[in-house]
Amino acid sequence: MSDYLVRATAGGGQILAIVARTTELVEEARTLHATSPTATAALGRALTGAILMAATLKDGQSVTLHVRGDGPLGGIVAVAVPGKVKGYVGEPETVLPLRSDGKLDVGGAVGRGTLDVVKDLGLKEPYRGSVPLVSGEIGEDLAYYFTVSEQKPSAVGLGVLVEPDGKVRGAGGYLLQLLPGAEEEIITVLEKNIAAVGPVSTPFSQGKTPEDILFLLLKDFDLKIHESRPLSYGCDCSRERLKDILLALGKEELQKLLEEQGGAEARCAFCSRVYRFTGEEVAGLLARVAAQERDG
């Protein structure tokens, strides 16, 4: 089964529901970044959360999640457009003891801090929101963000099940939001259904589809599926983009690279691809920076 999501409404249009299977793309991220099981779970949840949020956007729009925690993981970044996501963790080799319930300690790895959300909607300025981390488990933090920052009562479930050898066995998540005018009784039924589903990584690891989980979450509600979209991990880096990053270093740093290394090597944080620039290329960048400074 390939990764994909479904987007639906239920309860006569009072509930927005999105369910995504992300097993393959989280496994690809694990391979690219050589993450430990704990880092895999944390990054996988962030990637899944970002892809769920992107499903509410239009093509050409994007969302960036930045989890800034004080734990050993060193922070998480996930960037998504509809159907595609990329991301990385600060310290991919982070290892922590299992929690008392035998689960990976994502909250301990993330620590305390903030969740920052940036939505580029194609307007003059992007939308920015920030909330304190309530648990560091990512799903709860996103639900808190939606409720507090966007005033959209939400339930978010994110899960990554990692095999003993480190491979991703199942990953995915769901986003349930009450739309304006929703009746209070709906919350009671949704809470019951969510409890019955349990950790969302389990049904995905058992081969359940997003539709299967959608029907369980929205049991006893009328349901209308509006979209099914394939999902993938995708990085859009290029030599030109990495050149822009080198230019941003400034004249002194470029001069230092040229003198000490005779060139430059830049690694993309999202896909680990390495771009090498010759001394002649770095000298050319240095000349561009000098000309910009001269011309004011």
Automatic annotation (TrEMBL):
The keyword Disulfide bond applies. One of its GO terms (biological process) is protein refolding. InterPro entries: Heat_shock_Hsp33 (IPR000397), Heat_shock_Hsp33_C (IPR016154), Heat_shock_Hsp33_N (IPR016153). It is found in: Cytoplasm. It holds the Pfam family HSP33. SUPFAM superfamilies: Hsp33 domain (SSF64397), HSP33 redox switch-like (SSF118352). One of its GO terms (molecular function) is protein folding chaperone. Keywords: Chaperone, Cytoplasm, Disulfide bond, Redox-active center, Zinc. One of its GO terms (cellular component) is cytoplasm. Its main location: cytoplasm. The keyword Amino-acid biosynthesis does not apply. It comes from the Bacteria. Gene3D superfamilies: Hsp33 domain, HSP33 redox switch-like. Under oxidizing conditions two disulfide bonds are formed involving the reactive cysteines. Under reducing conditions zinc is bound to the reactive cysteines and the protein is inactive. Disulfide bonds join C235-C237, C268-C271. Redox regulated molecular chaperone. Protects both thermally unfolding and oxidatively damaged proteins from irreversible aggregation. Plays an important role in the bacterial defense system toward oxidative stress. NCBIfam families: PRK00114.1. Belongs to the HSP33 family. This is 33 kDa chaperonin. It comes from Neomoorella humiferrea. The gene is hslO.
